[in-house]
Amino acid sequence: MIKSYGEFWSHIFTFNAKANRSQYWWPIILNYILGGIAVTIVELAMGHSLNTIYTWGDWYINDIAKLIVLIVWIGTWSLRVRRLHDTNRSGWWILIELIPLLGTIWFFILMILPGVSNSRWSRNQSQI
């Protein structure tokens, strides 16, 4: 679990490898849990929602939160592409999520499929 999460951050810009199911799901689950905890702590410390801006400090915290979300989004995007490569699909399959509801369901199914041993992408993210 910890190794998969470390690989998520160390391969944040790696799009030319593949990631197996555990290398995909552990970082996704941990990011949701840690994100929820972080937002709760910051909102309790501020006394209001992150989106509510009363002072310049609130503005600064809101901008930092948006920057963190962007960085995690880039890492998740590259991880999703690597997971698609493990199922021998192009990273362009990520665009299937643009189809409302059905695209999200189909993409979830693609993420839970087992990897293919003779994939076009031969190296796992651990081997880079």
Task: Show unreliable segments.
Answer: none
Taking the alpha carbons of the first and last residues, their distance comes to 18 Å
DSSP strand (E) fraction?
under 5%
Give the overall silhouette.
elongated
Q: What's the structural domain tally?
A: 1
- Average pLDDT number: 92
Transmembrane segments: 24-47, 59-79, 91-113
Keywords: Membrane, Transmembrane, Transmembrane helix
Protein name: Integral membrane protein
Pfam families: DUF805
Detailed description of the structure:
This protein has 128 residues and is mostly helical. It has one domain (2-127). 60% of the residues lie in helices and 0% in strands. The chain has helices at residues 2-10, 21-46, 56-86, 102-112. Helix 1 packs across helix 2 and helix 2 runs antiparallel to helix 3 (56-86). The mean pLDDT is 92. Pfam families: DUF805. One of its GO terms (cellular component) is plasma membrane. This is Integral membrane protein.
Any chance you could write out the topology, listing elements then pairs?
Layout: H1 2-10, H2 21-46, H3 56-86, H4 102-112
Keywords, separated by commas or semicolons:
128 residues; 4 helices; mainly alpha; 60% helix; single chain
What can be said about this structure in brief?
With 128 residues, the chain is an all-alpha fold. The protein has one domain (2-127). The protein has four helices and no strands.
